[in-house]
Amino acid sequence: MDLPLPPVLSHYLNLTIIMENEKNHIIPYRTFLYVLALLITLTLTSVAITQIYLGTLTVVLALVIAAVKSSFVLRIFMHLKFEQKMFSIAVIAVVLILCVVIIITFLDYLYR
Amino acid sequence: MNTTPEIHRDDLASKTGMWFFLFTEMLLFGGLFIVYSIYRFRNAEAFHLAAHELNVAIGTINTIILLVSSTTIAMSITAIQKKNKKLALIFLGTTILLGLAFLVNKYFEWGEHLKEHIYPGSAVLALRGQGDVLFYGLYFFMTGLHALHIIIGLVFIGVITAMIYRDKITSDNFVLLENSGLYWHLVDLIWIFLFPLFYLIT
Q1: Cβ separation of B60 and A47 shorter than 8 Å?
Q2: What is the pTM of this model?
Q3: C-alpha dist (Å) from residue A81 to A25, A71, B172
Q4: Between residues B20 and A24, which one has the greater pLDDT?
Q5: Distance from B118 to chain A by nearest Cα, in Å?
Q6: Which of A77, A106, A110 to substitute to test the interface with B, most B CBs within 10 Å?
Q7: Is there a contact between B200 and A63 if contact means CB atoms under 8 Å apart?
Q8: Domain map of chain A by residue range?
Q9: Quick check: is B131 in a domain?
Q10: Which residues pair with B186 in a beta bridge?
Q11: CA distances (Å), B39 to each of B19, B71, B139, in order?
């Protein structure tokens, strides 16, 4: 096609092509099964670790494992790995907002 | 129904809308997690003792149930993309059954607490002190709100299942199935943090 397309239209066409490609992205069943095996292993690990009393370290380890588990749920189950970057950036922004609020709240309680 | 070729549909916008709703959910539970950590910080001893009374075995089983149900709903999207309607319906049916199993476990778990007269506003609980009142108040509110999300998710998935059965959702129009999956994964995600905070960290 040598017809010059108006930029808006060609942009729209590109977008539909991108969207169609994404729609065709099929994650194989076995990927989900691998992730499930990993998530269950991590769950059992965190149960085992917290049965041993390690003080503050227990809390840190349990939360780190929870964070690792959620990153797999977000990236694979919730397809963030295969979506446009926009979605991942937005999720990271929400997590950062939460972290900032947690830090400010704790600074208030610690140094009041 | 939607057979006219010029019908407008924007799956990306639909998914974006769902994600924005999920962000409000994340902040809702995030706020509750902050309340929990502050109260825990101020009543460390009471929270430590109270958390020991929760049943780690039931908590672990429920965690695994939710993880498996998340996997089955994710696999139902693969099935619908491969035009395998029957398998998609089987996966969704499994997801609903697992969600119900989670609620049944919760029923027995809460039943145990109620038998011991531990519930918000109980006189027995009040005698045990402020820390216990705060711990169990948050425990019942947060796991209760989470269970409410499970119930909403089950209704949502039920509707989607019926739509697939009636071919309203097909291999070239499944954004609603994806959105119900996103909601269900979020419920799983919240439990991933609720479980260590209430059951494991003592």
Answers
A1: yes
A2: 0.89
A3: 11, 10, 21
A4: B20
A5: 24
A6: A77
A7: no
A8: 28-78
A9: yes
A10: none
A11: 30, 34, 12
Structure tokens at B99: 């969600």
Task: Tell me whether A80 touches chain B (CB under 8 Å).
Answer: no
Scanning every residue of chain A, which has its alpha carbon at the shortest distance from the alpha carbon of B194?
Answer: A66
Return d(Cα B136, Cα B113) in angstroms, integer.
10
Q: Read off the amino acid at residue B26.
A: M
**Terminal alpha carbon distance of chain A:** 70
Cβ–Cβ < 8 Å for B69, B183: no
Chain position carrying tokens 């922004």: A93
Of B34, B68, B186, the CB nearest to A105: B34
Chain A residue numbers with beta carbons less than 8 Å from the beta carbon of B30 are: 98, 101
Structural domain for B92, as ranges: 32-200
Instruction: Provide block-wise average pLDDT over 10 residues at a time, chain B (202 residues).
Output: 67 95 97 95 90 93 97 97 96 98 97 93 90 95 98 98 96 94 97 94 79
State the first-to-last Cα distance of chain B, in angstroms, to the nearest integer: 56
Nearest CB among B38, B74, B188 relative to A105 is that of: B38
Min distance A2 CA to chain B CA atoms (Å): 25
> Do the domain assignments include residue B169?
yes
Structure tokens at B6: 């010029």
Q: Is residue B193 assigned to a domain?
A: yes
Give the domain CATH number at B112: 1.20.120.80
Number of domains in chain B: 1
| ipTM at complex level | 0.91
